[in-house]
Amino acid sequence: MKELKSEYQCAIDLVIEIIGGKWKVLILWNLNEGVKRFNELKRCMPGITQKMLTQQLRELEEHGLVSRIEYEQVPPRVEYVTTDLGKKLQPTLFEMCKWGDMYSEQRGIHMNRCWTTYDFMSN
């Protein structure tokens, strides 16, 4: 995992270090909908490899944004859930989603999938 520095230029720099890249924000967004198993997450993100998903989940877990829940059963079952700290990012992710919808509409860009409805924020 990429080690965090002891000092950053500003808070945005730190946030980008923690959730930056193509997959982490999408993982967190998909976990907004609730607990998911590894393969459920993988299906939600076409194009991500198993290795990359594993790496990104480990980093999010190490930074305290995602919890890995292991069930002692046969076959083994593992689920992922957003932590309380990770849930604090939901309003920001929600605003990013709204902005993306507005931008795509203005530019005539078609969305293949609606990630979730906006009413989850009212809960």
From TrEMBL:
The keyword Phosphoprotein does not apply. Residues 10-108 form the HTH hxlR-type domain. PROSITE patterns: HTH_HXLR. The keyword rRNA processing does not apply. InterPro entries: ArsR-like_HTH, HTH_HxlR, WH-like_DNA-bd_sf, WH_DNA-bd_sf. Gene3D superfamilies: Winged helix-like DNA-binding domain superfamily/Winged helix DNA-binding domain. It comes from the Bacteria. It holds the Pfam family HxlR. Keywords: DNA-binding, Transcription, Transcription regulation. PANTHER family: TRANSCRIPTIONAL REGULATOR, TRANSCRIPTIONAL REGULATOR, MARR FAMILY. This is Winged helix-turn-helix transcriptional regulator. It comes from Fictibacillus iocasae.
